[in-house]
Amino acid sequence: MKALWVLALGSLCLTAMADEVQTDVAQQQPPIEDYTYSMHLDIANVISMSEVPNVCEVVPMKMEYDDSKGQRHILRYSVMGNGCSSG
Predict the structure, then answer these.
(1) Using the 8-state DSSP alphabet, how is residue 24 labeled?
(2) Per DSSP, which regions of 1-87 are E strands?
(3) How far is CA 2 from the centre of its chain?
């Protein structure tokens, strides 16, 4: 009976620790900034960019980058998709 209690409490503790790890990762993620024309962008290193879809409309994009001080940023902006024909 004691072994059953130990297993039950152990699994409860592991679940609580797993939830805590996910919270830590979410807190490390920088907030998403919306681009405006008046923004001064300090982009030292681009980490990732979303791919432009093959549609003929304005689509949202995201770029993750580090600035010259090493701080991580996520920028949301809009571009025209690649699916428009020119003729």
Answers:
(1) H
(2) 32-34, 45-49, 58-66, 72-80
(3) 44
